[in-house]
Every structure is written in C-alpha cells, then in structure tokens.
Amino acid sequence: MGDARAPEPGGTRQVPPRRTPRQARSKARLARVLQAAERVLVGEGVQALTTTRVAAEAKVSVGSLYQYLPDRDAIIDALAAGYFARLETAMDDLVRAAADERWDDPVGVLIDAYAAIYRTEHGFRALWFGSSLTERTRAADRAHKRRMADGIRRVVLALGAAPDGEALARACHAAVLAADALAQEAFRRDPEGDPGLLDEAKLMLRGYLTAITARHEGQETTR
Predict the structure, then answer these.
(1) Which 3 state secondary structure label does DSSP give 43?
(2) Which of 24, 154, 136, 131 is nearest to 70 (CA)?
(3) Per-residue tens of pLDDT for the chain, all 223 residues
(4) What is the reported pTM?
(5) DSSP symbol at 23
(6) Of the residues 106, 203, 210, 216, which has the maximum number of CB atoms within 10 A of its CB?
(7) CA within 13 Å, CB half, 65
(8) C-alpha 37 chain-centroid distance
(9) Fold that domain 24-66 belongs to in CATH
(10) Secondary structure (H, E, C), 79-145
(11) Under CATH, which number does the domain 76-221 receive?
C-alpha cells in the first residue's frame, strides 16, 4: 500500500483528496490552507507548493493538511478548481447582463471582463505559467473550457445573434480556445495584459462573431 506522505517529486502521480470537509470549522480551515497555498504560489512559485511549506504558511500541522491535501498535486488541483469556479461564476453573471443590457460590442465586453479578472487573479496566472499542471487539472481545464464555451453560447442566444445548435456550440468552443491562448500570451508579455494583443484578440473574435451571424442570416435567406 502506497504512502501518501512520501516526498513530492512534482511528477504526474495523482492522489485524490483524502476527504471533503463537512463541518463549518473544517471548511474554514481548508479555505485558510488554500489561501496560504496561493500566497506561496504567487510569492515563491509552483515548485514551493509542498505540503510542509503550505502547512507552515497556514500555521497548521502537516498531519492536519494531509487530511484534505495529501501532496502537491492535490494542492494544485484544489487551487485550480477554485479559479475555475470563480471564472464560471463571472460568466454566469455576464450571461445575465447580456440579456438585460443588450450589448453593442459583446466581444469587447467579454474580453475586457476577463482581462480584469486575469489582472487580479495572480495565483491563476502563476499556476498556468508555472508549467506544472497535473493531468487531473489539465482534464479539469478542458471541462472548464467547455463550460465557458457554453456560457458564450448562452450570451449569443441572449443577444439573438444566432440559433442554438451543434454548429453554435462548436463555434463558441473554438472562440474560447482562441481567446484563452491569446489572453495567456498577453499576460505573459505584460502583467496588466499586453493591450495591443488584447485588441488583436477583439478584432479577430469580432470577425468570427460576424461570420457566425452571417452564416445564420444566410441560412434564413435560403429557406
């Protein structure tokens, strides 16, 4: 039987969290640990995310940490899950706003909104740029991008720009993949996001949205 307390080589071994906290006190302790882990991540880099270092930063015993986060991979997975949840909550808010406000420039609104999040989520950037994502987190990221794409689909539907269907879902997924790659590069170049590259992303995605809308209008004309 393997020892979850073995040294953490930073490889791809997957060790799931031992248990999920249920009591308010335990949930608060885990939240405090993850806040400490983020401070370590931002200040010292992903390689510093050992259970010993995080426990010291959180001022809890290593044994207490092991109850929930048995190794570095589990810490990375938990941090990433928190970032995904915040990004998806922001997308839900934007979907509601799109329906209420009827944006003239949805691409500009969405890119500006997520650029603002990237500027404040220092841990998210440190994790993604650290090139130490686990296989579990990479799989979670793929699922996250599909949920973000579904959010874009709901924005398009709220604006009445195209009909629902497989083609729209595919186009929105492609748009999310492209926007994510451009955003990452923009924030690698500049902690505030390279404005020129973000403008190019807007230009590209506005053209894509126009093409999606034209495709729909063309289909309507031929009926």
Answers:
(1) helix
(2) 136
(3) 333 333 333 333 334 445 565 667 778 889 999 999 999 999 998 889 999 999 999 999 999 898 889 999 999 999 999 999 999 999 999 999 998 988 989 999 999 999 999 999 899 888 888 667 788 989 999 999 999 999 999 999 999 888 999 999 999 999 999 999 999 999 999 999 999 999 999 999 999 999 988 876 655 544 5
(4) 0.82
(5) S
(6) 106
(7) 28
(8) 17
(9) Arc Repressor Mutant, subunit A (1.10.10)
(10) HHHHHHHHHHHHHHHHHHHHHHHCCCCHHHHHHHHHHHHHHHCHHHHHHHHCCCCCHHHHHHHHHHH
(11) 1.10.357.10
User: Please, where in the chain does CATH 1.10.10.60 lie?
Assistant: 24-66
- Residue where the block lists tokens 């390279």: 194
Give 4: exposed, middle or buried? Use CB within 10 Å, 0-12, 13-18, 19+: middle
What amino acid occupies position 44? E
Which residue in this structure is represented by tokens 């934007």?
94
Question: Could you tell me which residues come within 8 angstroms of residue 184 by beta carbon, excluding any fewer than 6 positions away?
Answer: 128, 129
How many residues does the structure list for the chain? 223
Q: Percentage helix, strand, coil, to 5, in the chain?
A: 75, 0, 25
Q: Are 205 and 180 in contact (CB under 8 A)?
A: no
Residue 46 amino acid letter: V
CA atoms 10, 14, 18, 21: torsion sign? positive
